[in-house]
What we know:
This protein has two domains: 4-125, Alpha-Beta Barrel (N-terminal domain of MutM-like DNA repair proteins), CATH 3.20.190; 128-266, Orthogonal Bundle (Helicase, Ruva Protein, domain 3). The chain contains nine helices and twelve strands. It has helices at residues 4-18, 35-40, 114-119, 137-145, 154-157, 169-179, 192-212, 219-227, 232-235, and strands spanning 25-28, 45-51, 54-59, 63-68, 74-79, 90-95, 99-104, 108-113, 128-129, 164-165, 255-259, 262-266. Strands 1-6-7-5 form a four-stranded antiparallel β-sheet. The protein has a four-stranded antiparallel β-sheet with strand order 2-3-4-8. Helix 6 (169-179) packs across helix 7 (192-212). The longest helix is centred in the last third of the chain and has 21 residues, at 192-212.
Amino acid sequence: MPEGPEIKQAADRIAIAIVQKPLTGIFFAFDHLKSYEELLVGHQVISVKPRGKALLTRFQNKLSIYSHNQLYGKWVIRAAHSYPTTNRQLRLALHTPKKSALLYSASDIEVLTDEQVATHPFLSRLGLDVLDEATTVEQVQERLLDKRFARRGLAGSLLDQQFLCGLGNYLRSEVLFVAGVHPSLRPVDCSFEQLAKLAMAAIAVSRQSYQTHGITNDLDIVVTLKQQGYPRRAYRHFVFNREGQPCFVCGTEILKVTLAGRRLYYCPTCQAL
């Protein structure tokens, strides 16, 4: 499933293609949304914003299209009314005179008023967005100590969009590594210093991933490995997907475990109990 950085990058691409441009055509694949095609065509999109792993495409008439990529959804930007060759099912198309924004495979699509956005069962429960520039380290620290999360395992909470939204499985492993925190710990088990490092890592790693299109490793290490001819998969992450390989920091073999039902990678030395 795409994580927050990938959704925010998609929002950027969609915004460049369609924001403040007259929509000449709209297509919804689902019958219950067909009536909105006529209501929305001719109106301008005024913003495309990520909300955790979802997107809100807002129109000047105060309606918004809510979409969630889930596991298989994918946005494609093409020349107007140009479609890629694919086996995917087209679910939503937004056409301007020059560009089309096409959403394939996603099934979670709604058209909402502002009031419905505010009370939406997914959107209204989202936690702090680590990619929102207004989110601070101090706010994330407070979240870690919130009674709803303080005694829950970090490995589970870091996947919970009600805790911090935008994080997912690769970011979970990378945030814990950068913070130097063992994946079995809970916030109440951590020192003040560890909590501070966790809060800083949750923001810094996520925002670096957004800015670098998915790279969470130390950028100096990345430069060195690229110069040595290593492929992207070899330098992209500190620990994620690197089971059995040496830690970039200490050389210890990276381990893989399953926590909260998902695979997690860590360094037993850098993240010692």
